[in-house]
Amino acid sequence: MKYKVEGCVVPVDGETDVAYAVRSVTKWYTAEDHFEAAGKFILDHPEINCSDIWVVDESYQMGMYPLEQVKWKADYLCGLRW
Fold it and tell me: What are the pLDDT digits (tens) for 57-67?
């Protein structure tokens, strides 16, 4: 199934005004489930630093995952965890 995954890059403290500098990143993935799609997204976009990753499938089923859990899934996908 195809999944659309979205996250954002938020400036760290001390940088420009957050309201104008947040950059959204969106990409489609083919995966077994929402969580796997989120893991693939983080592997492709390690600069993502927002607190949650949003995922929606072709039938509009949505999922939201904390960034730290998605990073663990990404580690699993590339063989760093088993």
Answer: 999 999 999 99
Give the pLDDT mean for 11-24. Answer: 69
Order of all β-strands in the sheet with 2-9: 23-30, 2-9, 52-57, 62-66
Report the distance separating Cα 69 and Cα 56, nearest Å.
17
Q: In this model, does residue 56 exceed pLDDT 90? A: yes
Burial of 19 (0-12, 13-18, 19+ CB in 10 A): exposed
Phi, psi for residue 21 in degrees, rounded to 5: -110, 0
| CA 41 – CA 39 distance, rounded (Å) | 5
pTM of the model: 0.86
